[in-house]
Amino acid sequence: MIEVVASMARGPVFLTGELLECLITFTNPMSHLSTSASSEMLAWASAQIHCQFHASESRVALPSQGNKQDVQAESDTVLIPSRGERGQCILDTPPKILFCDLRLDPGESKTYSYSEVVPSDGPPSFRGQAVKYVYKLTIGCQRVNSPIKLLRVPFRVLVLHGMSEPHFLQDEEVAPSNPFLDEEEGSSNRRDGSLLEKALDMLMATTSRRSPHLFNITNSRGKVAKFCIFKSVYRIGEDIIGTFTFSEGEIPCLQYSVSLQSEEEVNSMYQRKPAPPLSVTSHGRHLESCLHTASSHFSLPIPLNVTPGFSTDIITLRWRLHFEFVTSREPVESPTVLQNQSEVTIWTGADHVDVDTFSWDLPIKVLPTNPALAAYVSQFTGTNSINI
């Protein structure tokens, strides 16, 4: 028996265009003192990255693939990294040979390093209601005259659009400057920075810009409140903060709620009728009673495990804040407290209030974050093993 262990040292989350590195260790676990110990042989081993796509048959109508079939796929001696997986393999990297003819004596182990750039033209990892995109590193191993054994290590991919564009590598505006270096030396250091550092610089520059947006919240009867949000572009893991000023409103607001929602829309060419093209998922909600409140605020965290907005030929994922307001049709008198009154005053709300409700959607943009930060809440460990 040979034990195979694959481990991604930096964690299970990567940006597209980033270098994925994995250490793969092959061990003969038998002790050399055992009477039954013997050397173990492997003919070869290889590794490659692939992305599996799966669509809900009730929501997505994919074009027919016909009866085309690779006869080699039926053979256990042909390396098919997606063998036994659901859906279609929409992206894979060329396989890299780790070794040929490996011999391990009892107690001996050997470690091989695999590295590959995560393809920049692929979608992000996503598990939605209509489609799923799942990335895996697959290691294939084979003994002589035996079926191929596959070891899969799932990982998460985040997409930051614009990283592959030529101006991105030359953009010095987002790179941090060092006051202790002269201009020529600092410029050289910026050019030598890794892709991950440049991506994080761009993310910070994009999401750190504060440009407050003010909105007047009104219904058919008049102004309800003024709403302020400090920016519209966020990283996953950030808090969305907004403030309401009800003292400027003419219509009493009894209650409001704010929900962070994602919209998953199947593009018209692939919609399956009569299934709805749009699926809405809530990721957090703030609810507050606000009668006689001059001002209020909310804070909604964007979970680290959600997928930032993206678009493919089949699906588009967008983000929004969904507001719901409950207002009174009649003025509601506030409790009055006399200046010289020493006793406690108890105010009791009305037994019945005629109300109106209305809602509003505010689009926002959600971008990735540092992969190391997202790895803290990842469902993947970046490590897996198999016995051959």
Main β-sheet: number of strands, strand sense, barrel status? Answer: 7 strands, mixed
Strand content: 35-45%
* Whole-angstrom Rg: 29 Å
- Please identify the structural class as seen in this structure: mainly beta
| Mean pLDDT level | 85
Helix content: under 10%
Assembly form of the protein: single chain
Taken in chain order, the helices and strands follow as: EEEEEEEEEEHHHEEEEEEEEEEHE
Instruction: Please tally the β strands and state the result.
Output: 21
**Distance between the ends:** 6 Å
Number of helical stretches of at least 4 residues: 4
Cα shape: elongated
User: Can you tell me the residue ranges where pLDDT is under 50 for at least 5 consecutive residues?
Assistant: 67-73, 165-176, 185-193
